[in-house]
Amino acid sequence: MTLNVVPASPSAVLLISCPDRRGLAAAVTDFIFRNNGNILHLDQHVDAQQNVFFMRVEWDLQGFAIERSEILAAFTGQVGEAFAMHCEIHFSDTAPRMAIFVTKESHCLYDILSRVQAGEWRVDVPMLISNHPDLGEIAHKFGVNYRVFAINKENKLKQEQKQIAVLREQEIDFIVLARYMQVLSENFVSQFPNRIINIHHSFLPAFPGGQPYHKAYNRGVKLIGATSHYVTSELDAGPIIEQEVIRINHKDSVEDLIRKGKDVEKLALSRAIRYHLQHQILVYGNKTVIFA
Amino acid sequence: MTLNVVPASPSAVLLISCPDRRGLAAAVTDFIFRNNGNILHLDQHVDAQQNVFFMRVEWDLQGFAIERSEILAAFTGQVGEAFAMHCEIHFSDTAPRMAIFVTKESHCLYDILSRVQAGEWRVDVPMLISNHPDLGEIAHKFGVNYRVFAINKENKLKQEQKQIAVLREQEIDFIVLARYMQVLSENFVSQFPNRIINIHHSFLPAFPGGQPYHKAYNRGVKLIGATSHYVTSELDAGPIIEQEVIRINHKDSVEDLIRKGKDVEKLALSRAIRYHLQHQILVYGNKTVIFA
Amino acid sequence: MTLNVVPASPSAVLLISCPDRRGLAAAVTDFIFRNNGNILHLDQHVDAQQNVFFMRVEWDLQGFAIERSEILAAFTGQVGEAFAMHCEIHFSDTAPRMAIFVTKESHCLYDILSRVQAGEWRVDVPMLISNHPDLGEIAHKFGVNYRVFAINKENKLKQEQKQIAVLREQEIDFIVLARYMQVLSENFVSQFPNRIINIHHSFLPAFPGGQPYHKAYNRGVKLIGATSHYVTSELDAGPIIEQEVIRINHKDSVEDLIRKGKDVEKLALSRAIRYHLQHQILVYGNKTVIFA
Amino acid sequence: MTLNVVPASPSAVLLISCPDRRGLAAAVTDFIFRNNGNILHLDQHVDAQQNVFFMRVEWDLQGFAIERSEILAAFTGQVGEAFAMHCEIHFSDTAPRMAIFVTKESHCLYDILSRVQAGEWRVDVPMLISNHPDLGEIAHKFGVNYRVFAINKENKLKQEQKQIAVLREQEIDFIVLARYMQVLSENFVSQFPNRIINIHHSFLPAFPGGQPYHKAYNRGVKLIGATSHYVTSELDAGPIIEQEVIRINHKDSVEDLIRKGKDVEKLALSRAIRYHLQHQILVYGNKTVIFA
């Protein structure tokens, strides 16, 4: 399944974080201007409590004086090092490669694949990975490779090794856990830092772990939610990307919560994927800056 | 401060809960019909999991065959006992008496008093109780009696005894904790079962206890909320009446969260007060049925 | 494509509207009780301005004394006629037959088909109708018959006649216009009163007609929306079933509005379909009562 | 009534709009850096359709090399003229002077005054103006001067002249129409361009003009809203600042819509006032850029 959205003219996105001090914005924008770049978007944020500066700047590459393969080195040498910047660069005409992990629930998977199919995102989806064969038919419908790795207590680490090998081989950039009902090992997670997006079916930090809708029902809450976040070694505790909620009432059974919750799961997950694909997310500590 | 909304014609509200079985709705509506009542609103709910039946029925008293002081006894004898019903009756032209407890934050207090003043609710507010003198001026503005009971570890139970005495003397029907920064003792709470409404400044069960906005900031959530609930002996764990949320982002400091949160606190609290005043709430277990 | 949700025990749903007067609820519930029905849900509403009474009552058919084919006649004879009721009856184990009309946009179609496939609704989808061949591949993926009726000014009424013939032949109960970019003729609409659900991509009555997102962009609104409604002969003016909105800001181009709007279109349309399938909608005048 | 929030250290806010071209961000940030300013917030936006560049930049004045009274001239000479910029400068320790216009509805007025009293905003409120005496008591409670100018067809322009004279005398910076039930004349509006904020009790452009809740009720919408906007000579057609909505259903009478709508009116208006006070709004054409 391949991308089908090509922007008119390619642009570069530079993501920066560093200790805050005078002259940061001037140094960055001057570098772009001197090299004949036209800024399309510029967002910055200063965390006054932590004294950290964050910036996302996107400029048109047409007529830019530096070859794209040289930009990061040039910027680092002329600006980044002097300010102890952490930098990343991305180009709008490159489609990241996304793997989707699923188990048996189809709603997030359908939502993602139909967005890809309709050209809503610029992304490649070379493969689906599952611990069950159930959703293979959907993968087949959309022409995506479907790999099953059955997981149990005994084989978990071995199976993860095989998954990692396949992901490497397929040059996967990031992973989406679309209601994948397995906890990834610390080793697995460490190989894809800030590159595994999970959807948890509650309004975190309320109801982490299993059966959040049952817990929500028993507590008698009046709103339920969903949270997309980067996966870290601690379950449901990684940096939150997006949250969405929906109102419920006393008439709703657990089954109604599960059904209504699916709609906010799809929204919270698809928005997180888009932010990730647009390089709009900067992670620091256990939080995210979303330049949307 | 007294009520200023008088409905055109008085109505009766009957709140019922009992084990579910055939014929409940027929028995209740037949009783009203036989006595020449015209039903204005009828809501019922069956908790299929617990097999409990709930009903709120409101009818016009004009031409009703039974004196209002006799209705509950008549209904219980003719219908209620046979079905082991728990019943309550209320009349729309009676204004409940509400006491407001505050500490130093004024936003919920202003919101409540301005709604009372504008005649949005049918309620009397004979008094404010506080553990600090700060908001006395606001009480004065609105012509409401303001009583200060300074609380510390040593005098807490004694002061609560005095508060209870005043509340009894003033024939207070229910209490609203409008950001009252003291935990009520189990004894106090037990005297007003399902008649103390608190506003907690988080989306419970996330962030119970102190400083929820600081906790929300540190966790990096993307939505903050407020929860109104009946107070029970366990802190921030009583039956939830209403919840509301508002979106935040990385630009928001803790102070911004506190500021934005005030708006949802006011909404969640004022809606809970209205539901309570309209007799739209049925509590069972640790949950609420809201017939709104 | 056929239904795959079977409820534990079948139930009957009776929808009633009539002039309001004393004894209506008693008469209906007594009929059900006398015939040994156990009420699962009962909702009623009185439009005090128009003096109209509305009721939706659902009861378990297990042990009910009347054959299902006889219920409507029995009820009408014993209760309905006396109160001049307009009545409809439905049974929970019957799957309505839905036809979907599309043009080129796939998002609502995917959303609907994936819900059907996942068993979220009890419905049959025997066919898709389109004025373009583009979405035939999606129909094929889901195993649904896809019929193309190209429409132009000259052939419109003839083509509609053919569509109607196919719909009759397939015993279609109701039609969903999932971004069908043709205005149906008055004749077509009159054949399916309150049985054609459209999704309009604006918050009606703002921006009726063509290009609502362009209009919203030009007006500079801060929220955009979508409206599902029953189709009447007047464009975008039928009874509203559901509306949903999403926040936008100055950064959003028309293309962003179109993209963000799709998410609320899907929500507003799928909720309307569910209400219709659950027989939760009563239309009167140009408005809806939604017993949800 | 005077301000009571003083920020730790004063800052300057520069608002810029001009035709878009290369080097704009670099020129502005370089000016601030050369003069030893530390940027606290920087937001920019390019309207690609109109080719217009917008920027809001806020920096700490501590240690800044230019006297505040000289900054605008210095910036214009060194940067602004070369890029044909339209510029405004504001200082965070100056409290704007706001006049509030009211008629008989108190909810927005209470909301505003209680926020001012609690120190939520940095603003002075020297006076209220009304066409009725009714809300004078509230003004008195909060110690604000209350001026009544009764308006009828005959005296309207004369009375407006007197109002303008008082506003000038009191050095009013901007006006808030907090449910002021009079249409201002074109002459009045022209004297305060983009400095009169109105709250309209509908989701514009739906239901402009009088009785929007009645219109919403009759149309059968499922959400109602409120819109804050700058006043222009065309009724309810000025640049929209903020909109908010709330869900309603068939149970809600017109009176319920009016009551529920008040809560969103308060929110939409208070947010607009805050954006205005923080100098976060740039108007162009008939739209707003909100740098929030």
Write a brief structural summary.
Chain A has 292 residues and is an alpha/beta fold.
Keyphrases for this structure?
homotetramer, 292 residues, alpha/beta, Alpha-Beta Plaits, Rossmann fold, seven-stranded mixed beta sheet, disordered N terminus
Structural summary, described in words:
Four copies of one chain form a homotetramer. The first copy, chain A, has two domains: 81 residues, ACT domain (Alpha-Beta Plaits); 194 residues, Rossmann fold (3-Layer(aba) Sandwich), CATH 3.40.50.170. Chain A is an alpha/beta fold. The N terminus of chain A is likely disordered. In chain A, β12 and β13 form a beta hairpin. Chains in contact: A-B, A-C, A-D, B-C, B-D, C-D. Chains A and B meet through β11 and β13 of A and β11 and β13 of B.
* CATH hierarchy, class of the largest domain in chain A: Alpha Beta
Which value, in Å, is the CA radius of gyration of chain A?
21 Å
Principal-axis shape of chain A equals: globular
Q: What fraction strand of chain A?
A: 25-35%
Number of strands of chain A: 13
Oligomer: homotetramer
Percent helix of chain A, as a range, is: 25-40%
**Total helix count of chain A?**
8
Q: Main sheet of chain A, how many strands, which sense, barrel?
A: 7 strands, mixed
CATH superfamily of the largest domain in chain A: Formyl transferase, N-terminal domain
Query: What is CATH's topology name of the largest domain in chain A?
Result: Rossmann fold
Order of helices and strands of chain A: EHEEHEEHEHEHEHEHEEHEE
List the helices and strands and how they pair.
The structure is a homotetramer of 292-residue chains.
Chain A: E1 11-19, H1 24-34, E2 38-47, E3 52-60, H2 68-80, E4 86-91, E5 97-102, H3 107-117, E6 124-130, H4 136-141, E7 145-148, H5 156-169, E8 174-177, H6 186-191, E9 196-200, H7 212-219, E10 223-230, E11 240-247, H8 254-277, E12 281-284, E13 287-290
Parallel strand pairs in A: 5-6, 5-8, 6-7, 8-9
Antiparallel strand pairs in A: 1-3, 1-4, 2-3, 9-10, 10-11, 12-13
Helix pairs in contact in A: 3-8
